[in-house]
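Q: Here's a chain of 277 amino acids. Please give me its 3D structure as tokens.
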Amino acid sequence: MCLIALAWRTHPAYRLVVAANRDEYFGRLSAPAGFWDDHRGVLAGRDLEAGGTWLGITLDGRFAALTNYRNPADRRTGVPSRGALVSDFLTGKNGPAEYVKDVGRAAASYNGFSLLVGDKDALWFVSNRGGAPVRVAPGVHGLSNHLLDTPWPKVERARAKLAKQLDEPFDTMAAFDLLGDTERAPNAELPSTGVSLELEERLSAIRILAAGGYGTRCSTVLCFTNDGRVEFHERSYREDGGTAGTVSYRLTLSGAKARASSRRAESRPPGTPLPAR
């Protein structure tokens, strides 16, 4: 992912709300979100070149998402894929606090990354470009190609829009509208991350329109309720900017309260794609 706006334990009905865009080269092969054949409890997209993912959840309430840290000068070849940091948490058993400590010990092996991992009880952040892991406080947060809550224009705009949406019931289409914002920041507000001013401006949009084969590949909207229900929607884009398709899942977490389980029984089985509302 290259932009994640999230609300963590800041709404009476929702434990976690996420709106995220994945920016990547369109030539990199990947599969849309679905339940993995080799790990049936994992719901995520998949990088078909390295096998990891950029964002995903599990049926027992785990969540993880990753952004790359933008600094072209220190990018190395022949290092492990950063997508494994997400998939290893989703397929593993360690809690988020233990996991980020383990990641911290091996962090130097990877190119720059910022990682969020959480479960029903806690959300943690770790980066190999910023200090020790930190437990994320309740609130509305933003992450792009830097550290958590770095006040880049796109991060601040996405946080403000998500915070405003929390005044109403969760709305999938409103969240997709947030993620579809192509407005660029004025030059005076742009960060300096080691790329040209022209590229910095293009990358300052919440949704990056493709140029040179690179842009926003997909948008993900995710909501965990406090009673164990989950909505997961992913919209994919073609290189020409058109929508390639949307997959949607509505499910109930394992171990959720009986009321949530009864609603699950009235709907389609977990893992059945549904149209986004």
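Q: Can you summarize the key feature?
A: The helical segments are 83-91, 96-106, 153-165, 172-179, 197-203, 258-266.
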